[in-house]
Amino acid sequence: MNIALSTLVLVILLIPGFLFRRFYYSGEFSKEYFKQNFSDLILPSLILSGIINTFCYSIVYVLGFRSDAIPAISTLLSGTTDSNSVSQAINTLFLELYPGLSYFLFAGLTGAFAGLLGKYFIRTYKLDRRYKLFRFQNEWHYLFSGEILDFPDIHSSAKATQLTFVDALVNTSEGSVIYSGILSSYVLSSSTGIDRIYLSDARRRYLKNDDKKDLERYYDMPGDFFVIFAGQIINLHITYYSI
């Protein structure tokens, strides 16, 4: 019972750290939040939760908040086998239920807001493009968006508004085919990095027709989107155009 209580209390205390990471790794970078190794999620969340809880409790303490819930939580986390101490700690938490819930709500919202603020700051000032320390692991976003051009080791710069044109070499039963079009969207995979890409204004040509004229080589493909799955792609050629 004590182990279960200690685990429950620990999970509640970790919520601010979980929320920070969930909102920091959001949108195009949400894949990073879902780690295959559970320890990769727990350790950073533990550190972040400690920082956030210290910050939040300092604020409420300055504002005059006093509670016996902190000693009670410490008792439960200690894993003590003293039934009287455990019962007293639980009774204290019930008596401090509403102030405690209000605090944890405040800490959770602080964690979520801090995560969003941190991501906004890093993305707005392009810190992830300038320094590897702040770089997100979704390399496909940097490649497909053209932000990779702002990396220090690449002597170029990304445009404010640009269009990404993709040539995808695909192996088919009829031979190697190049599908070309404007990149509209893409979907990530948890195992292979990228699962599929969506092209608009797509057209195709067979490599065996390279000796023909341009008008004879290319075939325009009707439809709003053409979907290519990553397992079919041999390589990609990407071109950025300023609009």
**Main beta sheet:** 6 strands, antiparallel
Strand % is 15-25%
- Rg from C-alpha positions? 26 Å
Number of helices: 8
Total number of domains:
2
Quaternary structure: single chain
Q: Roughly how many Å apart are the termini?
A: 63 Å
- Uncertain runs are none
> Could you state the order of secondary-structure elements as H and E?
HHHHHHHEEEHEEE
Q: What percent of the residues sit in helical stretches (DSSP H or I)?
A: 40-55%
Residue-averaged pLDDT, rounded?
83
Judging from the principal axes of the Cα atoms, what is the shape? Answer: elongated
Give the number of DSSP strands: 6
Report on this model:
With 243 residues, the protein is α+β, with helices and mostly antiparallel strands. It has 2 domains: 2-125, no CATH class; 159-242, Roll (SH3 type barrels). Helix content is 47%, strand content 23%. The chain has 8 helices and 6 strands; from the N terminus they run H-H-H-H-H-H-H-E-E-E-H-E-E-E. Strands 1, 2, 3, 4, 5 and 6 form a 6-stranded antiparallel sheet that branches. Helix 3 (69-77) packs antiparallel against helix 4. It starts with a helix and ends with a strand. The model has no long low-confidence stretch (mean pLDDT 83).
